[in-house]
Design brief:
Layout (H helix, E strand, L loop, with lengths): L1 E3 L5 H8 L11 E3 L14 E3 L7 H9 L13 H4 L1 E4 L2 H8 L2 H6 L27 E4 L28 H15 L13 E11 L9 H9 L8 E2 L2 E7 L5 E7 L3 E2 L4 E3 H13 L8 H17 L9 E3 H21 L2 E11 L11 E2 L9 E3 L8 E3 L3 H12 L4 E6 L8 E2 L5 E2 L3 E5 L4 E7 L1 H6 L1 H20 L5 E7 H5 L4 H8 L3
Parallel strand pairs: 1-2, 3-4, 14-15, 21-22
Antiparallel strand pairs: 4-5, 6-13, 7-10, 8-9, 11-12, 15-16, 17-20, 18-19, 20-21
Helix pairs in contact: 7-9, 7-10, 8-9, 8-10
């Protein structure tokens, strides 16, 4: 079990980042107001809410942590496609608010021919048992809606509710099916895709960037010691003619409180120490010089002249230190952030559900069907979107002597190239030649390669990515290849294809 809070150690956060890996020992995560949004893990099976949530937005955020399809598509196995939520009333209230959506969803049974994509949903029960709900991720398609989204609803809006007993029976029935995945290919290599992601990195901050005019204004606001008055009240009791006692309060003369005083020199020392101990700048001599300059500017504006002694009340000194700390923090917060990139390696060849039917690669081609009996594929089976493009390329490299391995890529693998200013590009293949070079390959029709501006933009993004990967010297040698259907059909093998494209 892993506990995650805002004070979690680096080791705990590292274990959290690795929960999707097959060898992760973590089976349960206790999140203390931490994992609400921005945490996209695909292997969450059960969410247990240990407290009621008053905010519907927060409830939806927490539900969203489990609404990721492990393999990117619906498999037809409920124990994989669903997330179980053992919930407080805040969750059931959220589900009741979805009733109008549930009535609009058409029940579509999983396809017997293979994994179900996000457009199909199992039958829906509207029973709402006390405490436990079952939710199915995905996006629902609606007749006539080409984008596959029902009224713009996201995956969090597709909910299935069923009883605990029904859920348990279904899970038991699926235990054997869960264990069925594509068999590992003997001798296959470890393939890691160096994914490059944008990050905002703060520009190094220095006290030099603190606005001295603001420091002067703050100093002017601390020019005098203020007296602290003690206002007293007396309780007075009077007895009237009826022998009744009336109690009242009366103000008494106020007196000035005795205060502690510190010297201006001590205030300067405390100001410099406070600035340097904010944790915003390194403990360098240059930064200390700037801190002393800020303190001197502040004290001069507050009326301290040269080395003349001046006593400050403790209250005035404390307020001055707080004001300076706020100014420095404000300068740090205004510090520009610049876009940068970080490497987040993606471990490919993760367990993949075994399709119900795997055809021989020499069988008749069908879009979306799975084909096996390869000799150099790193996975036992692969699926393709086009015959003369992807499928033809796979058969070519599988029979090439100068190719060691090839791997078909799918969007669910997470092997994408970040495009600027926004977007992601998912290539089609990785080919490893006999010299160990990794080739990222995209197949396109002749017309798209010649005329499609988006294809050209993807090619530029991939070439920039290749340059960055090779410059990092951390992931071996990578190259990019865009091939057309004509290049494939006119090339008998991998070397001939490289010559046809013009890279050899």
């Amino acid at each position: 079990m892993l506990l995650v809070t805002s004070q979690s150690s680096d080791a705990a956060l590292a274990a959290l980042a690795d929960v999707e890996k097959p060898d992760s020992p973590v089976r349960a995560i206790v999140s203390v107001d931490k994992l609400k949004e921005g945490w996209d893990v695909k292997n969450i099976g059960v969410i247990i809410g240990l407290r009621a949530l008053a905010s519907q937005t927060l409830t939806e955020q927490i539900l969203g942590r489990g609404l990721r399809l492990p393999f990117g598509v619906r498999t037809g196995i409920p124990a994989i496609d669903h997330v179980d939520v053992v919930a407080h009333e805040s969750y059931t209230q959220l589900l009741r608010s979805k009733d109008s959506l549930l009535e609009r969803i058409a029940s579509v049974a999983p396809s017997p021919g293979g994994p179900v994509d996000a457009g199909g949903v199992p039958p829906i029960s509207t029973e709402l048992p006390g405490g436990t709900v079952r939710i199915t991720p995905g996006v629902v398609g609606e007749p006539g809606n080409s984008d596959g989204v029902l009224g713009g609803m996201s995956e969090a809006d597709l909910l299935i509710i069923q009883s605990v007993d029904t859920s348990a029976v279904s899970i038991e029935r699926d235990i054997e099916a869960i264990g069925q995945h594509l068999p590992f290919v003997p001798g296959r290599p470890r393939i890691v895709f160096p994914r490059r992601e944008r990050a905002l990195v703060p520009v190094p901050f220095s006290l030099e960037s603190v606005d001295m005019d603001a420091v002067t204004i703050a100093g002017q606001q601390h020019r005098v010691n203020y007296e602290v008055s003690l206002q007293g009240q007396a309780i007075v009791a009077d007895r009237n003619l009826d022998d009744e006692v009336n109690v009242r309060t009366e103000a008494v003369t106020s007196v000035s409180a005795t205060q502690n005083y510190v010297s201006a020199a001590e205030v300067r020392t405390d100001l410099v120490m406070r600035i340097m101990n904010l944790g915003l700048v390194p403990q360098l001599l240059t930064e200390r010089v700037w801190a002393e300059g800020i303190a001197d500017t502040f004290l001069a504006a507050s009326g301290v002249v040269g080395s003349e002694p001046e006593d400050w009340t403790s209250q005035r000194a404390a307020q001055a230190i707080t004001a300076i700390a706020s100014l420095v923090r404000a300068a740090y917060d205004r510090n520009d952030r610049q876009p940068s990139f970080v490497w987040r390696p993606v471990e490919l060849l993760q367990p993949r559900p075994k399709p119900p039917i795997i055809h021989s690669w020499y069988s008749e081609f069908v879009v979306g069907a799975w084909y096996g009996e390869w000799t150099k594929s790193a996975e036992a089976a692969a699926s393709f979107d086009s015959k003369t493009g992807e499928f033809a390329f796979a058969t070519l490299v599988d029979q090439s002597d100068d190719v060691s391995w090839w791997l078909r890529l799918y969007p669910s693998d997470g092997a994408y190239i970040t495009r600027m200013p926004t977007g992601r590009y998912f290539p089609d293949f990785i080919v490893i030649d006999t010299e160990g070079v990794h080739w990222l390959v995209e197949t396109k029709s002749d017309a798209a390669a010649a005329n499609d501006l988006d294809v050209a933009a993807k090619k530029r993004a991939a070439e920039d990515w290749v340059a960055a990967v090779n410059e990092s010297k951390s992931f071996g040698v990578w190259r990019y290849l865009l091939v057309t259907e004509s290049n494939i059909s006119n090339s008998p093998n991998w070397s001939a294809l490289l010559h046809a494209v013009g890279v050899l």
